[in-house]
Amino acid sequence: MEKARRKPxxxxxxxxxxxxxxxxxxxxxxxxxxxxxxxxGRSGRSVLKREGDGATPITSMKLLSGFRRGERxxxxxxxxxxxxxxxxMLWCDQSGxxxxxxxxxxxxxxxxxEMRRSDGLxxxxxxxxxxxxxxxxxRGSAIFFxxxxxxxxxxxxxxxxxxGDMRRLLPHLRKGTIVRVV
Length: 182
Hints:
By secondary structure, this protein is mainly beta. The protein contains one helix and 14 strands; from the N terminus they run E-E-E-E-E-E-E-E-E-E-E-E-E-H-E.
């Protein structure tokens, strides 16, 4: 008879993202007893985050909400508010635009990212409060906690984990959970 796998106990409400040895774009994510590998920005981490620098900000960020591709991911086990990604959902990354670092709708002329990506990175995408509550030009936009590219390729400044690891973390996440990049 197989022994039932116990779910790891999570006592912390803080997700800690630490650099992994070897490559500046690799990290270890820890939430209580859950420890998973991750990718971070291609430029590693930075305390002076700027738009387009490829760095993950060294800071503590609250989780605000999330997005999911409904046709690929049904209901998710989490207390975090999650919206289904619809056609035409975009995220403005044009620092001079009034909608900078905000969700916008197509058609939209300023520079932006599509939320409904064909590569699946945003099939589950959590919004961290980096330059959102208090926006400043060129401080960086679209710093998300999302799914990984094959081979744990670097991100443009986000934190990324595998689908399986995201599903392990989600039940313990809620609005206000802190993601601390050290």
